[in-house]
Design brief:
Oligomer: homodimer
Number of helices of chain A: 12
Largest sheet of chain A: 6 strands, antiparallel
Radius of gyration of chain A: 21 Å
Low-confidence stretches of chain A: 1-45
Structural class of chain A: alpha+beta
Distance between the termini of chain A: 20 Å
Mean pLDDT of chain A: 90
Helix content of chain A: 10-25%
Order of helices and strands of chain A: EEHHEHEHEHEEHEHHHEEEHHEH
Number of strands of chain A: 12
Strand content of chain A: 15-25%
Chain lengths: ~425, ~425
């Protein structure tokens, strides 16, 4: 919390945006006005809304999932710690400005002298803030390069859990779509606003960082607020029914935010989180030839309502013991909903923020399409790696996905007034 | 015009959508409600609006440019003419259904038997029509393959102007992003609706066609109605100020629609058009380091207002003779606005429908970003090739773009009741 908490901004107070369950629900409710009843990815009624950049936690995690994404991972191209810190300071200022609907720089895209390059690229002139959030993360290689070099004097503060993710079955990783020293997640209701944010942060970083990979997502596949309707992924199924919602403050505290006592080497990460990014390529052409009943058996839910195959409606708890045909339960042993359910994973839950993508075509005459998986967890060792291993080994869905991008980042806590993002790490 | 012209649909009559200037303006006005004053790509106030699929001309040309695009080019993988015709019939039915917000097939994504694959993929369940238009085109290789084979008995009906586009200076074409026997342009206000359309048409075509390439566009760069505000491209400039608008019915007739007398070999194309698709990769990182004054000199317009450098406001006619410094005109000889202006191109105008894109990153540490150029013209030989040649040779902008995708298609006229798209070609 900071000094300007109570200043209303475009009708939404910062307290309402940064605070806990009820306040966040209020914002989510505002965004939900005008949506169709089910899973529409149409823009919200209030594209002029903005979220505060500064606060206890970074925005873009429990913020109601916006419809569009531009995500970028960066390699740091300098070994100069001061230059890196300077970039984080510049990024902080630019990100705060852009989330308020302002230009990236203090001069602006067209207001400066004609003999210097503008400090904003201009394609967002006239566009409202669009609910933009900008979320920064630090990759393992920022702390120690692959060959063990401590470029920035950070190795002794590297979080225990911040390591390159292990190889999972069915991983077929493209290094050009994986890893990264830094990442930025830009989410907005207007894709031009999200692209403008990433593009200008990359521009500011010229000479210090280079874009390693970047991913657009055209439609959200998660809800992070109970007021949002559940969207559909490119399997055609509702996605995110079981996702942690911002209103579940106890679970958010337990499963999303890193606690000060979690890692003695990384107290700077308290109030932050870990971000897992995985590019799941779906073989949608093969999927589309599977019978409806098989598709539902793979997922364990109705394609229509999203209800578990054991009955009820979307949010009914699945009955994993209900008997079905052939001495098997109604929800099959290899059904996705069973394998990833907290009951079978030590109670672990994730806050997912994935997006549908189509990136042109593949060499097989189909679309290069899938789900760009993003999840925020308190600890990947307990909340992601075991679940992903089980899923990769046993999940019926795995026949229809290939993972070709993967990365893990530590997401520092929110930025207080006068601070820059990740300041506690460099202090 | 057809029998159901006067049936209102979701509050918008088909006559209003298919007809001439004033009626189209009414629709555009409806879409414009709720937009911010300048260039917002936020969704319109009426995502439930739908456009008629059948009519005198195909929809998606003079239709007010929607915000999102999915475009796909296909190779036909059969030599069987009947199979090709059958696909066009199936595509026609599916396209008409989807533009009405219905599933691609008659059964639906979740309504069928559990032991057969659904005839719709499901990711658009619950989504409104989203202003979806689906526009079909035929490439030169449909009429005659590269090696001269007349696979479908169409060679003697190949339009004179439907040839592989010539090599232009600065073209660096990737065959995997160029050419195609068939194309489909899907435009909508919701990208999930556009993607759903292309994906289902590709699914229906399995065994007859394969996706050759596909391109998403996240933000429109054109206005095709006087009621739309001018959006910005990734150079940060307003784009499409001079574009032909639907309300300019005389110019639409003169520059967009093929006339029955235009080509004796291709009377089937009367009421249709030619579609040029070009993928302009922008070197945005280099562009962003150019001084504001240089950027404006390259374009010939103010980056702020879009007014020509000779003065006035956005829609003021440029004064190309107005003297500037150093014995040069204010609007430089190599300024984009001068080189492409109808006054210097025999009066030729295009109807452009381009989109901004970002497709991940390039190998140079930057974004793979640019403008996916789409233009509809009456004749590429008079309305595109000379202008593109001049631009490629002389335009100051060319230093900041590389063209790596290119294709030309003949766009058959609208589809009457009981007909399938392109029927006159096969009759």
């Amino acid at each position: 919390m900071n000094a300007t908490d109570d200043i209303p901004r475009r009708g939404i107070s910062r307290r309402g945006l940064i605070g806990g369950g009820a306040a966040v629900a209020g914002v989510a409710g505002a965004f939900a006005v005008g949506r169709s009843s089910e899973g529409s990815t149409a823009e919200p009624a209030t594209p002029t809304a903005s979220y505060a950049f500064r606060g206890e936690h970074q925005a873009g995690i429990v913020t109601p999932a916006q419809d569009r994404l531009h995500f970028a991972a960066f390699d740091v191209t300098t070994d100069d710690r001061d230059q890196l810190v300077d970039l984080l300071k510049q990024w902080t200022e630019a990100a705060e400005r852009m989330t308020q609907g302002k230009p990236a720089g203090t001069v602006g895209p067209v207001e400066g002298a004609s003999n210097v390059p503008p400090d904003d690229t201009g394609e967002a002139i006239g566009l409202p803030p669009g609910g933009l959030t900008i979320t920064f993360g630090f990759g393992p290689t920022l702390f120690r390069t692959e060959d063990g070099t401590d470029r920035f004097g950070l190795t002794d503060r590297q979080p225990e859990a911040l390591r390159t993710l292990p190889h999972f079955p069915a991983d077929n990783l493209d290094p050009a779509r994986s890893y990264g020293d830094l990442c930025i997640q830009a989410c907005a209701e207007d894709p031009q606003v999200a692209v403008h944010a990433i593009r200008n942060l990359a521009r500011i970083g010229f000479g210090t960082v280079a874009v390693r990979w970047s991913q657009l997502g055209f439609g959200r596949t998660s809800t992070t607020s109970t007021s949002q309707s559940t969207p559909r992924n490119l399997f055609g199924f509702k996605d995110g029914t079981m996702n942690i919602k911002a209103e579940e403050t106890k679970d958010v505290g337990e499963h999303v935010w890193v606690d000060a006592g979690d890692d003695a080497k990384a107290e700077w990460l308290a109030g932050g989180s870990y971000l897992i990014a995985r590019r799941f390529n779906m073989t949608i052409e093969v999927w589309d030839r599977q019978p409806l009943g098989d598709q539902e058996a793979f997922i364990g839910r109705s394609k229509d309502t999203g209800a578990p195959l054991s009955g009820g409606s979307e949010f009914t708890k699945p009955d994993f013991d209900m008997p079905g045909a052939d001495d098997l339960p109604v929800i099959a042993p290899d059904a996705h909903v069973r394998l990833v359910h907290p009951d079978f994973n030590g109670g672990a839950r994730m806050l997912r923020r994935g997006y549908n993508f189509v990136d042109g075509s593949n060499s097989l005459g189909g679309l290069d399409a899938g789900l760009f998986f993003l999840a925020f967890v308190r600890n990947p060792d307990t909340h992601f790696i075991p679940i992903q291993n089980k899923m990769a080994k046993h999940d019926a869905l795995m026949e229809y996905v290939k993972v070709n991008g993967s990365a893990l980042f530590a997401v520092p806590p929110g930025v207080g007034e006068g601070e820059y993002v990740g300041q506690a790490l460099f202090a």
